[in-house]
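A favour, since you know our structure tokens better than I do. What I am after is a single protein written out in full by you. Could you add the entry underneath, on a fresh line?


***
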Amino acid sequence: MKVENDGQVPADMVLLHANDDQDSGTCYVLTKNLDGETNLKLKQAPKSLNQEFKNVSKLKELKGSMKYEEPNDQIYKFKGNFSVKLSTEYEIKEIGLKSENILLRGTSLKNTPFVYGCVVYTGHDTKIQMNNSSASYKTSKLMRHADKQILTIFLVQVLISFACAVIGARFLITNRKN
């Protein structure tokens, strides 16, 4: 998948190549949609992958397998392995993957013309979706106490109304004969 500068990352993906000026495979992402921070975070493609996939035609020839952890809600942790046959190697090479090699859904690419990545989590399995929980409502002790008092007053009024209705009905029944 290709993501261009100022574009949002649509799914969690492992960074294969970052087109930067120094050819170091680094890119910067804005994570304010994840953690609210507005500073740019540095992400880096594994060196051997960055060198291998400078050209799009090489990406089309990519053959390998990736093993990584099950989807979870920990946005700062990722572990995996990428087994791939590189053009410079005769054997399949195991490349370790960690959190600095992954771009998370909802982040924005900044100060980098484009990056190539391999999608690992989509939809409800993305870390941002798994980390999304319903809002917890916070109430003060005073509000909880006031709620209990209001409930008590309501129940007392219901009891008084019921008692008055019974007394009124008895009064009507006994005075109807007269």
